[in-house]
Amino acid sequence: MSSGSPTKIRVVNLQKSFGENQVLRGVHLEIQQGESMVVIGGSGSGKTVLIKCIIGLIRPDGGEVYVDGLEISSLNERRLNEVRKKFGMLFQGGALFDSLKVWENVGFGLRQQTRLGEEEIRRIATEKLRLLGLKDVEDLMPAELSGGMKKRVSLARAIALEPEILLYDEPTTGIDPVVADAINELIIQMREKLNVTSIAITHDMKSAYKIGDRIAMLYEGEIIEVGTPDEIKNSPNPIVQQFIQGKSEGPIKMI
Q1: Which of 42, 152, 180, 211 is the most exposed place for a label (fewest CB within 10 A)?
Q2: How would you class 249 by CB atoms within 10 Å of its CB: exposed for 0-12, middle for 13-18, buried for 19 or more?
């Protein structure tokens, strides 16, 4: 990613409430083509709501989301579905279908959004699995996989339609540190091999520093700081410092 890269995603004054709970209070964020942006913040800070607004799964109460210059929050469902084809998403926990074989999980989006035959879908699924270092697992069921393998299968599903943008929802949650580091390496490889724009949300700072070109901190419904990993590490903001150091004492209110 170069500093002259075009803006891929622009979030302007985004607001979203659920009842009396105002989750997003005016979020501003720009992500460049080919950039890996990591959004950090505590549990319940609105990170997942933010990426669901970006992909159009949740409609905001106010503000705009631009993807390649197109404002998407006001689109009808048909046009929104066209924009969603640009996205692949790795859900927290993987979200694999227990009743489907591995290759059927990977090929799920291909079956829904293309007219490809089953043989071609299986070929593409096998190709994506091998790209992620998984061989001879096509006919296994999700219950037969380890946690790390499930994450890889979920990532294979996310890239099956060759998206321009990959969203990662807590990619290293629920797996041990060694597997987490392997997932971080895969995220970096996906960006380099596929030239995708990436957005990851996490509270795992080791992961954030490794995969992020820039890191944005979401706090009380707003982005309070954006910077490179080094800039975030050296931030003078006491809220940022308390969070990245994992300290109980400081300005962040304990829930």
Answers
A1: 42
A2: exposed
